[in-house]
Amino acid sequence: MATVSQPGVEQQGTILRGVVSWFCAVQFMLYGFAKVTGSQFTVLDSRLASPLEDVSGFWLAWYFFGYSGLYKAFIALVEIVGGGLLVFRRTALAGVLVLLPATVHIVLINIAFRVDLGAMMMAIVLAFGLLYLIRPQMRQLLAVVFVRHESTRAARVATVCGVVLAGALAFSSTYWIANFNNRFPTEIDGTWDVVGEQTEGISKVFFERNRAYWVAFMDEDGTLRDHHFEIDDGRLQIWQEWLTKGELLAQGELTDADVIELRFTDGGRAVLRRLLGPRS
Q1: Domain extents in the chain
Q2: What is the pLDDT of residue 198?
Q3: Disulfide: which of 25, 52, 200, 252 matches 268 by Cβ 3.0-4.6 Å?
Q4: Distance between CA 268 and CA 252 in Å, rounded?
């Protein structure tokens, strides 16, 4: 018996693909030109004046993506060009391959930084739209990505062992850097307030737990100055340059668990009182 074709079903599929292509193309071009015209990634002065720890995930991500004009232009180019490629049958697959990784990344940013529910839902819709467009070519793409290659069992075992060894070395080296090289915990780690009359123009001092020997002075105008510190048996010394030390700036003593008396080499003095312990 001859197989009866169903041109109506094929035509409906073609129409649906066209609708999805145009919908995705228009949305991506809208998002792309929004970055060009400045309606996306602009930051409010009130948020720029807020302490970093008080900034929401939305404004943190918004400011990050808008900080670099080059980066913003690149994202806009991907969205505009990718959207244009979607509407031509000859280039639709190229458009999907350009846009899909960027869209998955946008979905993760929306979820991780809790950017906006509406924006997140639109990103998810666009991601599924791109997956729908790429579905007919999925088998061919997988055949290209996962190249057939004949190898012996011994070679495969050796490769797996090599990957495991490389992963173990990467983990152990970065763990050592994070917990032993970058950190040298001391009893004064945390945020200290400068009290008293002679403050040398400093409002706060930060002895950093996550950067060994790093101390930062915050001046009364908000300026940060980074220096090198060491403490031994309650005796504190602070130098000009982190790690290389340079000129000695100040010496002091931990007179109480939460009080440090500092004497600067220029004759100034300051009393530090612990405000907070390390927060990270």
Answers
A1: 7-145, 153-181, 190-276
A2: 67
A3: 200
A4: 12
- 54 DSSP assignment: G
Provide DSSP, 61-83.
Answer: HHHHHHH-HHHHHHHHHHHHHHH
Using the predicted structure, report yes or no on whether residue 118 has a pLDDT greater than 50. Answer: yes
Cα–Cα distance between 114 and 58 in angstroms, integer? 6
Distance of alpha carbon 255 from alpha carbon 75, whole angstroms: 54
**208 contacts: CB under 8 Å, gap ≥ 6:** 189, 214, 215, 216, 278
pLDDT at 1 over 50: no
Tokens of 78: 């991907």
The architecture in CATH of the region 190-276 reads Beta Barrel (2.40)
Q: What percent of the chain has pLDDT over 90?
A: 60
For residue 241, the tally of other CB atoms under 10 A from its CB is: 12
In this structure, are residues 223 and 236 in contact, taking their beta carbons and an 8 Å threshold? no
Contact between 47 and 57 (Cβ < 8 Å): no
Rounded CA separation 127/74 (Å):
19
Q: Where residue 101 falls among pLDDT bands split at 50, 70, 90?
A: very high
Q: What is the mean pLDDT of the chain?
A: 89
Record the pTM.
0.74
Cβ contact 20:87 at 8 Å: no
